[in-house]
Design brief:
2 copies of one chain form a homodimer. Chain A is an alpha/beta fold. Chain A has 11 helices and 20 strands.
């Protein structure tokens, strides 16, 4: 509303110019006030563990504390997995003041105490809510309570918020996530803001200044190569989607390929290596999703492959693109800091494929010559130089991930 | 998120059916929980006084208290104007808990005290906020604070909320107004919810179950026949818009033609009579917008025309449609409770028009025969029956409003 009384004789053109100017200035001011996220967080993709893939709603504080212990004892923390994120079902209702209340059966000692325990292990504390009226499991959502919830999280010492998109009705996604971003910023405690909008309104196009990571898909299905009709996909479906998303990722704003299914009993070891390798190529957050209290040595060795993790965490922050496809064989390319590169060969088919690939090439603006060492990041050894072709046999669903380092 | 782990062997059709069913049930439950407004309010269009048209941002508690006194002393309250609505600029900031704070310079005794004073006069207490991040005057908006603000209003004894649409960014209007509706309902104190969305997203199509009244236009311009290029209009422009809106009005969900400009120094008395008459035909809320501390007898006599107000407040709650147009002459028709009817003749032009109109007709499902008394609601006298034509001369910008009562 503009406070002007106008008669028929009013000089409209002048008034209209004034109103246009006023509106512009106000919009700019409001834009500056509100265009805020914590910019120094997540300069590389966040890593950690999330309760959902393994436990779903069946969580409690005993599991969470044991998982914090296990993240340290298994070496996951040392490998970089330092966010422990409690997904849906920690919350149960709101009190008379509207404050969100933890489920007293699942978390009797309260979220502050649980967060303190997580912090005492040198880990960071992640939590979950939803932009709609209720979470996906029907718990209270944050819609209309954003600033209050953000203050509560800050008081509990929360470092990371996964913010889901169930029960959003006709809400606009960008506006809804912007409101929680503003609320977290106003609460003052730096919080990594994980947008979990499932890709339905192309969040890669708007999430950059709102969240630090943004989910691109429905929940991952624990399988190598399957899809369902409402958009859920296994590993290969997500890989296909990410072929077009590389240009939207960068420091502080990552495309989230969803939590890992490594160690959850379905994928074979080759598929698990491929899974981690490709998530690293995407510069996706790496959130383990298995029960790491009872994790096998093989799973730990996959999850903690520091050379693969280093690709994920490369400070240049440029995500991979799908450089070549030859039938079931795909070769992905990622430029790295210091003029180095990663290539990832994956065999999506059920037959072995023979490799004989020259890596001297130009992809986008990146020209690769014969002067690079080629290192296999799963065998942890040099396998030659770019003077020769990469040769070998890639078994079904297996991966060859190499790093090219300037000689 | 759905807590299921799926391998390639998973029986998809069964799973999909289960998910669809689960989603449906959850949606229904959430729909029932949230589809709530205070249904027993505003069974007839709200009436009162609002500070904006006369005072804009220049309000303070002295003005408000004096206006409450004047609403009683002038007889406006007795005529039905019982909501005193404080528009934008009463608020200034939020405190550390996020609670909205009244401007201590404008309202030093606080909103609770001001509300108590308004209530002590037998009036009801209305307030203003905005669905966006800031109000139209740059004060704090309710976006992300909806439930907290609603609790605050309830604690202050607020009876009416005008809820504006500035600085909404990419918010969805229906979703934004739904959130505040839910917040008011949850706070528990019955509040008339006045949607002020300016018509940009056709609120008449979605506001029915959300608010008790819904603005259809930009702010009214204080003129009889003017428009501006961004959609503001005077009396005639709003009349044209309302020709198509009658089907959306009804008890508890009214189309709001905006606050009255009667007594604000621009409209001539004929135009003011026409203004009030047509707002009554629309079943629009009647919110005076002038300084009623210094109101003239003529303005009071127009605003308090009980016969015209009775048309506005007719319990059948069916709004008027534009029945006939003859050049500058328009005849509007409104069915009333008890098988009675109102007709409103308006002359939009600058020349007198001669009336000679047979009112025996059928409009929609309503058949009118020769057996009605015809009463002039501005002259307060019977002028004949429907056995004869209505005859006379209508001066420029003047109105003839008649009620047809069964003999």
């Amino acid at each position: 509303m503009i406070n002007l009384e106008i008669s028929s004789e009013f000089p409209y053109p002048y008034y209209c110019l004034m109103k246009a100017f006023f509106t512009l200035v106000l919009s700019l001011i409001i834009g500056i006030i509100h265009a805020q996220k914590f910019d120094d967080l997540a300069k590389t993709p966040p890593m950690g563990w999330n309760s959902w893939n393994k436990f779903g709603c069946d969580i409690n504080e005993k599991i969470i504390r044991e998982m914090a212990d296990a993240m340290v004892s298994t070496g996951l923390k040392d490998a970089g997995y330092d966010y422990l994120v409690i997904d849906d079902c920690w919350q149960i209702r709101r009190d008379d003041n509207g404050t969100i209340v933890a489920d007293p059966e699942r978390c009797p000692s309260g979220m502050k105490s649980l967060g303190d325990y997580i912090h005492s292990k040198g880990l960071k504390f992640g939590i979950y809510s939803d932009a709609g009226t209720a979470t996906c499991q029907g718990r209270p959502g944050s819609r209309g309570y954003e600033f209050q919830d953000a203050r509560t999280y800050a008081a509990w010492g929360v470092d990371y918020l996964k913010y889901d998109w169930c029960n959003h009705g006709k809400q606009n996604s960008e506006a809804s996530y912007t409101t929680m971003r503003d609320a977290l910023f106003k609460a003052g405690r730096p919080v990594v803001f994980s947008i979990c909008e499932w890709g339905t309104t192309k969040p890669w196009e708007w999430a950059r200044d709102i969240g630090h990571l943004s989910r691109s898909t429905e929940d991952i299905i624990n399988c190598f190569d399957c899809k369902n009709y409402w958009g859920g996909m296994g590993v290969t479906g997500i890989i296909d989607l990410f072929a077009d998303l590389y240009k939207y990722a960068g420091p502080g704003h990552w495309n989230d390929a969803d939590m890992l299914e490594i160690g959850n009993g379905v994928l074979i070891p080759a598929e698990e290596r491929l899974h981690l390798s490709m998530w690293a190529m995407f510069a996706s957050p790496l959130m383990a999703g298995n029960d790491i209290r009872s994790v096998s040595k093989e799973t730990v060795s996959i999850l903690t492959n520091k050379e693969v993790i280093a690709i994920d965490q490369d400070p240049l922050g440029v995500a991979a693109l799908r450089w070549m496809q030859y039938g079931d064989l795909e070769i992905w390319f990622r430029p790295l800091e210091g003029g180095n590169y990663a290539f990832c060969f994956i065999n999506r088919g059920s037959q072995p494929v023979t490799l004989d690939q020259d890596l001297k090439t130009t992809v986008r603006k990146y020209a690769i010559d014969a002067n690079f060492m080629v290192r296999d990041l799963w065998k942890h050894q040099e396998i030659g130089t770019t003077a020769e072709n990469v040769k070998g046999v890639l078994l079904p669903h297996d991966v060859l991930m190499v790093k090219l380092t300037k000689k």
